[in-house]
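As a warm-up, study this chain.
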Amino acid sequence: MYAKAAENMHKMLEAGVIARDETACYYVYRIIMGQHVQTGIVASASVAEYDMNRIKRHEFTRPDKEDDRGPPN
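Now compare it with the structure written out below.
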């Protein structure tokens, strides 16, 4: 389902554009578009922890958007 995204990620890894961090971390980012400023974080987390509600949802999410990111059948 996400074959093109996986292909692009592997190309970026091979080219050295992105790399796996040696230690656990998260990143803070800021996007500025005109007068709109958005700040957030990027991190990875356990799907199991999310499913057990140990990671709190910050907004309403749609089941179809959660389900298509689950483990492959």
